[in-house]
Structures are given as structure tokens and as C-alpha cells.
Specification:
Multidrug efflux transporter AcrB transmembrane fold; 3 domains
Length: 696
């Protein structure tokens, strides 16, 4: 990597031209990304519920995608049904069910009714149809009739739309805030503009790469939110780390190129390993192998890789050309840094302080054990309250009822020779289901043979909605019942509740593996970086404390009484574990550098803390500003993640890095540095100064 750094420093125009060409190619591709993204992916593609749905489509002619057209008025809503039905058929609906077939689909005052439309097309095709269909029906029905279209494709279309708006809004909020924060940190217009430019190019190139991946595989709409959230944080922070050290070396009167080589050999090395740590953490989200998590992992890995690549090549090239002009547009008189050891009395008893802080973090993490993870299914609560797809579903729930709309479906299959066994099993299972708490009824139907096997369907209606604890409890009891089936009859559970439950189970099964992979790979990576095994173990412990306490905070602020989206904890772990490594690597590297230059253990720890505390504070403020900008998101999971990540960054930067980490290092003593020896870093520093004489 040092060879690459030197190439960028000594051939800056070549490096800059390469990135400019890449950015020009990326720009038009990045603008096409949003239209290529998809919603959904919050299901286990290998679960029984997916196989059950495929059997239902084959044996019972169930349509793979359906929409609900909700009509409401002050008069009789059913009068608008014929016109709405005609438009729906003209727009490709293969199945139409209205109040004539389902008399219960009308509210008591006749003011609300609904039409269910079935489509043979895929989810994406039906999504794109929603706006046009809603407009056409609205034009066809009488004045005073409100039209709302809901159902899975409509909810997915709304999620895509709001995800795009959320990312754009966050960028509009974050960039002005970062402008102010960087100006206060650097007190220089030039030093402030460089990180913002780096961030903008990072986002554009990553979005273009994301568009390329959409041509290969399905990518969830959360991709753009994660790119913006992580991209702004790492791109600006990495630029901040490098520029601050570069200016420090210039203040020490090193020539420009020598100052840059010194910067890239120290902080540049740390930034590279910090970025690799983020990529390792985010790549663990590939493990569940679902579209949602894969898209989040892809976004985090791509944007961090681009940010690190730019920090290693484009940034040193720009700084090589700017030289002392990096201080252009100075605001006030900037003092040269003369760090001194922090005078903190608590350092006299680091063991006691460390024990108290660990206990405090344990108390903060305790509420996390009460968290209930459940992905929303057949639910619009993730959307803003005024979105038509959400209000339509809520109107049906409040005025008509969801009874029968989202049944739990048990699909039974048996060989041709076991027809009696199939019938007996279906009737017995229906009887057991009717006896369960929260079940309103169970119906048995027989379908066409599928793949040569006989099929039966037990459709179970629950009193509570598909997202309720009651519906999930019924699914759990039915799983036990079908596991006890004898003979040649096999049974699979389908329906919205079972699909959601399968996804929740996948997350819980994946969590230990995700944590293990992140821990092992991070341990290897940090051992290579720090050349000692003890420091990486401390890093894992510190990061674990932050993640656990953040989950505890999440449990306390949860608006659903401790029930959160299954995606959130895994995302929080991967994102925060990776980002918190940035501060650890930067601070420890500086401490080790001072120790290698001949300082004693305590002096190295406290001197490194003094030299990096302000830097880490500035970086933390930047991250908090980015994450807080997402609290304006209309998508609840993005808003929730923004709040919790902001809290996690504050805990990490203020408590862990300034209090817990130095206390632990002082308590452990010199053995934390492994085989490093005082004085070993002094000679390389002198070589850099000598090699760079005359540089500008």
C-alpha cells in the first residue's frame, strides 16, 4: 500500500485524472439506480413457507401477487365497484373478487368496500402498475369516492418511493451540517471542502456500482439508505483523520511530500485497517442469504471499499497539489498543536473506574434481553402514516376487518395411494386448529395434484391480525401439530404470519454465526495491524460493550413495547461494530507510535489520547450528524437505526475511548504492546524527513 501512496503523492495528476474519468462514467449510472431497486426480501427463500406458497400457486391456482383496491365515500361505496373492476381488468388483473363474492367486505355503514385483484405477473411488474392503476380508477369512479390501493406490491412500491426520498432528504440535511462541523474542526475552507468532495464522489461511484449489481441480482431499496448513511460517515471521517495528521506534520515543518508520506505511513495505514474492519463486519450480513441483508451488506462493503480506495490514492494526490494551501480560507488564527497529557484524577485508580464503567454498561445492556424480534408482515406500520398503501390497509382493518384476508395456510401433500391418509390428516388438523386460542375457524379444501402428489389446504382464520403475538402463537402450535403427522402425509405452513416467523427464525439462527465470523475475522485483522493478540481482544470487548448497551437503549426507546424489526439488531451489530473500530485503530495506532518512539507506557497512552481525543470527537460529531439526519426518514426502520447508531457513537467516542480504553490499557500495562519496543519507530521517522527534503 505504501507504493500506491507514493505513486499518488508523486504523480498526483495521473491519480486525479483516473478518478475524474471514473466519476464521469459513474454519474449517469448512479442516476438509474433507484429505478432498478426492489422492495421485499424480508423472507427466508429456503423456508417451508416459500415451498408452501409455490404449492398453493400450482395446486390451488393462487395468484403470486395481489392488490386490494379500497373504495370509501360518505354514501354507498359498492356503487363504485363496477367501474373500478372494469379498469382493473383493463390493466391486466387476472382475478377479481369483490363484495358480491365476499359479502363481509363492506363496512356496516356501506361507506367502505374493497376489491381484491390477482396478478400472474411478478412483484416488480405489479409494483410499477400501482400508480397508474390508482389514477385510472380514481378517474373512473364518481366524485367523492376515495381510492386507495394496498397489498404487498403496493406496500413495496411505497417503500421504494420513500426510501429514495429518505436518502435524498438525509443528504440535504447532512451536507450543510457537515459543512459547519468541518469548518469548526479545521477552521479552513479548503480543508473543509476536500472531505465533502470526497464524500460526494464516494456516493456517486458506489451508487453506480450498485446499479451494476442490479443487473445481476435483486437489490433491496434499503441499499441507497445504507450507502448514504455509512458512506458519508466513513468518507468524511477518513478524510478528517488524514488531513488533520497532514496539517500536523506540516506544522512540524516537514516538506509537503515528506509530510504526506509520513501521514500515509501512520494514519493512512490506520485508515486502511479501519476500513477493512468495517468491510469485515458488513460482509457478515451476507451469511443469512436473504435479499434484504445481502443488499445491506453489499452497500456497506462497496461504499467503504470506495472510501478507502479514495483515501489511499485520490486524497493524497489532492493534498500533494494543495500543500500548504490546505490552510486556505483560514478562519481566525489556528494554533499549532502542542498536546499535553490529560490531567484526570481517576487515572490513579484505573481498576476501580474500569469496574464501575463495565457495571454501568452491563446495566445499560440489560433491557436488550427483553427485546422481541419480529419482522412486520402484511403490515404498513413501516410506512409514514399518510401513505395511501398504509391508510388503505388500516381502513380495511378498522372498518371491515382483516378476518380471512391473511389466513394461516397449512399445505398437505401425499402420494396418490394415500388419499385417505391425506383426508384424515387434513380434517384432524382442522379440528385441532379450531380448538386453539385465538382461532375463529378452519376450512379444508382439496386442490389439483402438484408434481404428481395429492394436495389439501387447511385455511385457518385468527381473531388477531397476522402481525399479532396471538397469530404467531397459533403458528408455533401448528408447527408442533404438523411435526407429529404420521405416514406419507407431509405438511408445510404458509401465509404471511408463517413467512414472517420463518424470517425471524433465520435471523436468530444467523446471529451466533454472524457474531462469530465478525469476531474471528476482526481478531485476525487487528492482530496483523497491531502485531499483538491482547490489543485485538480488548478491541472486541470494547466494541461488544457498545453494541450491547446500544441494544439496551433500543429496547428502552422501542415504540412497540419491546418489539422491534428483526433486521435492526443484526444491522446495528454489523454497522456499529465496524464503525467503532475506526476510533480504536486511530487512537491505539497513535499510542503505539509514541511508545515505539521511546515514550513510557503511561506517557504513550496518555500522549496518544491527548493527540487523538479532539480528532475522535470531531469524527464522532460528524457520524452523529449523519445518523441524526436519518431521524427524519419516513421509513421507520431507517429512522430507528439512525437514532440508535447516533447513541452508539456517543457511547463509543465519549465513554469507551476516553474513559474505558485508557483505564484498561493502564491496568494491563506494557504487555499490551506485544513485541513492540520503545525506540523502534524513531528511525523510520527520520528516514521520511530526509527523503522528503525539498518537497513542496
Amino acid at each position: 500500500m505504501r507504493t500506491v501512496n507514493r505513486w499518488a503523492i508523486h504523480r498526483p495528476w495521473t491519480a486525479i485524472l483516473g478518478w475524474v474519468v471514473l466519476a464521469l462514467i459513474a454519474a449517469p449510472l448512479a442516476m438509474q439506480l433507484q429505478g432498478a431497486l426492489k422492495a421485499g426480501g424480508f423472507s427466508d427463500p429456503r423456508a417451508d413457507s416459500v415451498e408452501a406458497q409455490e404449492t398453493l400457486e400450482a395446486a390451488f391456482d393462487q395468484k403470486p401477487n395481489s392488490l386490494m383496491v379500497v373504495l370509501s365515500t360518505d354514501g354507498d361505496a359498492t356503487a363504485a365497484v363496477p367501474a373500478a373492476t372494469e379498469i382493473a381488468v383493463d390493466h391486466g388483473a387476472d382475478l377479481v373478487i369483490d363484495h358480491l363474492a365476499q359479502p363481509g367486505w363492506v363496512s356496516q355503514d356501506q361507506g367502505t368496500t374493497m376489491i381484491v385483484l390477482g396478478f400472474d405477473e411478478d412483484n416488480t411488474t405489479v409494483q410499477t402498475l400501482v400508480p397508474e392503476l390508482e389514477h385510472a380508477i380514481d378517474e373512473a369512479v364518481a366524485d367523492g369516492v376515495a381510492v386507495e390501493i394496498t397489498g404487498a406490491p403496493a406496500l413495496d412500491a411505497a417503500l421504494n418511493h420513500h426510501s429514495e426520498q429518505d436518502a435524498a432528504r438525509a443528504e440535504m440535511i447532512a451536507f450543510p451540517v457537515l459543512f459547519v462541523v468541518l469548518l469548526l474542526v479545521f477552521r479552513s475552507v479548503a480543508a473543509m471542502l476536500v472531505p465533502l468532495a470526497m464524500a460526494g464522489v464516494t456516493l456517486a461511484i458506489t451508487q453506480a456500482a450498485g446499479f451494476g449489481f442490479t443487473q445481476i441480482t435483486d437489490v433491496n431499496s434499503l441499499f441507497v439508505n445504507i450507502v448514504t448513511m455509512i458512506g458519508l460517515a466513513v468518507a468524511v471521517d477518513y478524510s478528517l483523520f488524514i488531513i488533520k495528521r497532514f496539517r500536523e506534520e506540516l506544522d512540524a515543518e516537514l516538506p509537503v511530500k515528506a509530510a504526506l508520506e509520513r501521514t500515509m505511513a501512520t494514519v493512512g495505514h490506520s485508515v486502511m485497517f479501519a476500513g477493512l474492519a468495517v468491510m469485515v463486519s458488513m460482509s457478515a450480513l451476507f451469511i443469512p442469504r436473504t435479499m434484504a441483508f445481502t443488499s445491506i451488506a453489499l452497500a456497506g462493503v462497496l461504499v467503504t471499499a470506495v472510501a478507502v480506495s479514495m483515501s489511499m490514492t485520490l486524497l493524497p494526490a489532492v493534498l500533494s497539489l494543495l500543500g500548504h494551501r490546505i490552510n486556505w480560507g483560514a478562519i481566525g488564527r489556528r494554533r499549532k498543536q502542542t498536546p499535553s497529557e490529560p490531567k484526570q484524577r481517576w487515572l490513579r485508580r484505573p481498576g476501580i473506574v474500569l469496574a464501575l464503567l463495565v457495571a454501568a454498561f452491563a446495566a445499560a445492556a440489560a433491557p436488550a434481553f427483553n427485546l422481541n424480534w419480529q419482522v412486520p408482515v402484511a403490515s404498513a406500520t413501516i410506512l409514514p402514516s399518510d401513505d395511501g398503501a398504509r391508510t388503505g390497509l388500516e381502513r380495511v382493518e378498522n372498518e371491515i376487518g382483516l378476518e380471512g384476508l391473511f389466513p394461516i395456510e397449512v399445505v398437505l401433500t401425499a402420494p396418490q395411494s394415500a388419499s385417505e391418509d391425506l383426508s384424515r390428516a387434513a380434517e384432524d388438523l382442522a379440528g385441532e386448529a379450531r380448538a386453539l386460542d385465538g382461532v375463529l375457524g378452519a376450512q379444508v379444501a382439496y386442490g389439483e395434484p402438484a408434481d404428481g402428489a395429492l394436495t389439501a389446504l387447511v385455511s385457518i382464520t385468527t381473531a388477531a391480525g397476522p402481525d399479532s403475538d396471538g397469530a404467531h402463537a397459533v403458528v408455533d402450535e401448528l408447527r408442533e401439530a404438523v411435526d407429529g403427522l404420521d405416514g406419507d402425509v407431509t405438511a408445510l405452513l404458509g401465509g404471511a404470519t408463517a413467512t414472517g416467523g420463518d424470517f425471524d427464525d433465520l435471523v436468530l439462527r444467523s446471529m451466533p454465526l454472524v457474531i462469530g465470523v465478525v469476531a474471528v475475522l476482526s481478531l485476525i485483522l487487528l492482530t496483523v495491524s497491531f502485531r499483538t493478540w491482547l490489543m485485538p481482544l480488548l478491541a472486541l470487548a470494547f466494541n461488544g460493550m457498545v453494541v450491547a448497551a446500544s441494544l439496551g437503549v433500543l429496547a428502552l426507546v422501542s415504540a412497540e413495547g419491546g418489539t422491534i424489526n428483526s433486521v435492526t439488531p443484526l444491522m446495528l451489530f454489523a454497522v456499529m461494530f465496524g464503525l467503532s473500530m475506526d476510533y480504536m485503530v486511530i487512537m491505539i495506532s497513535r499510542m503505539k507510535e509514541l511508545y515505539g518512539e521511546g515514550l513510557g507506557h503511561r506517557e504513550a497512552v496518555m500522549g496518544g489520547l491527548a493527540r487523538t481525543a479532539g480528532l475522535v470527537n470531531g469524527a464522532a460529531i460528524i457520524m452523529v450528524a449523519v445518523f441524526i439526519s436519518f431521524t427524519s426518514a419516513q421509513i421507520s426502520i431507517v429512522r430507528e437505526l439512525g437514532i440508535v447508531l447516533a447513541v452508539a457513537v456517543v457511547l463509543d467516542a465519549v465513554v469507551i475511548r476516553r474513559l474505558v480504553m485508557p483505564a484498561a490499557l493502564l491496568l494491563v500495562g506494557e504487555r499490551v504492546w506485544g513485541r513492540a519496543r520503545r525506540g523502534e519507530a524513531a528511525e523510520p521517522a527520520r528516514e521520511l524527513v530526509g527523503a522528503g527534503k525539498g518537497g513542496r
